[in-house]
Amino acid sequence: MALAAACALPGQQIKTGEWAPMFNGKNLDGWKANENPQAWEVVIEDGQPAIKTTGFRSHLFWMVEECEDCEFKADFKVTDGSNSGMYFRAAFEPGWPKGYEAQVNATHKDPVKTGSLYNFHKNFESPTKPNEWGTQHIIVQGNHIVIKVNDKVITDYVDEKNTYQKGWLALQGHDPNSTTYYRNLYYKRLPKK
């Protein structure tokens, strides 16, 4: 899937079952930080536009459409010792948002690694190395959550409590010592079962 020049913006119609680009490669149109907006910038990394987070705790929310049943996919690169995450069905609020988090972490001291569903299903061995691009793909339908990294299923989990049912998608800036890059971000609304 190549990076599209245009991305979905608030007020635009998104068709169920079709991938919608979330990042235009130029700026953060359609995105909003819950705190510390200076943690986020658009850079060229390895020859392609990417969203970079570094220096602060912050969560960057895609404010176009809330996820109920959806897919959320992005390429990521986490530096050595860094921690990040891809949130879904999350509340827009300061601090650590309520919602599901697909962990992005290769070597940070937190033992919960990339592909984990934070606080629900733990993976202790990272499927990617620091400074290496990977693709994380989240599929959430009802209370069934699948997280794939580089097309390999890392988490296949049923949340019997159905803890979070609707909310925003977001990227995480974890702490002052963490630097992470995201590119090729896509969203797909899934039909209700």
Q: Could you explain the architecture of this structure?
A:
With 193 residues, the protein is mainly beta. It has no helices and 13 strands. The radius of gyration is 15 Å and the shape is globular.
Short characterization:
With 193 residues, this protein is mainly beta.
Layout of strands and helices, then pairs:
Elements: E1 20-21, E2 31-33, E3 40-45, E4 48-54, E5 58-67, E6 70-78, E7 84-90, E8 100-104, E9 134-141, E10 144-149, E11 152-158, E12 167-173, E13 179-189
Descriptive keywords:
13 strands; five-stranded antiparallel β-sheet; 0% helix; eight-stranded antiparallel β-sheet; Jelly Rolls; mainly beta; 193 residues
CATH class of the domain at 63-168: Mainly Beta
Low-confidence stretches: none
Choose one word for the global shape: globular
Separation of the first and last Cα atoms: 26 Å
The number of distinct helices, counting runs of at least 4 residues, comes to 0
Work out the number of β strands: 13
CATH superfamily of the domain at 63-168: Exo-inulinase, domain 1
SS strand fraction: over 45%
CATH architecture of the domain at 63-168: Sandwich
* CATH topology label of the domain at 63-168: Jelly Rolls
* Rg calculated over all Cα atoms: 15 Å
Order of helices and strands: EEEEEEEEEEEEE
Rounded mean pLDDT score:
95
